[in-house]
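Deliverable D2.4 — example input (structure tokens):
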């Protein structure tokens, strides 16, 4: 018997603040978008950048955490699975949506202005840099 694998991992920035709602049974669901970018140089040396947008869906406790702690522009790591949803609207138009159903989320920067924190760190001389809490 063969098994399949459906696993997605992305690192990107939130395109909007998370929106939370509840199912009729009371289960929380939070949605937001994440943008990932990649850059490359073409054969002629020209720099190119491409941005891909992902719709993210979280459920239950993770949905509540995302709503409480995530904000637009924040960098996050998302792990989950791809899901394709198909539906027909009231006019009979068929729609397809591909989304990541997240099972893991990690904040990669905090909510405060990261550029201000970087500037503060740059203002310190090398001898004044704070030591890491970890020995590695």
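Example output (designed residues):
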């Amino acid at each position: 018997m063969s098994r399949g694998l459906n696993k997605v991992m992305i690192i990107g920035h939130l395109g909007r603040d998370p929106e939370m709602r509840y199912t009729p049974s009371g289960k929380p669901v939070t949605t937001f978008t994440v943008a990932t970018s990649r850059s490359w140089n073409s054969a002629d040396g020209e720099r190119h950048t491409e941005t891909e947008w992902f719709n993210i869906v979280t459920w239950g406790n993770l949905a509540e955490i995302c709503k409480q702690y995530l904000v637009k522009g924040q960098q996050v790591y998302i792990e989950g699975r791809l899901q394709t949803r198909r539906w027909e609207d009231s006019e009979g138009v068929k729609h397809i949506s591909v989304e990541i159903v997240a099972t893991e989320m990690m904040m990669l920067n905090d909510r405060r202005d990261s550029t201000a924190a970087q500037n503060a760190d740059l203002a310190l001389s090398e001898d004044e840099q704070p030591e890491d809490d970890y020995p590695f």
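The longest strand covers residues 28-41.
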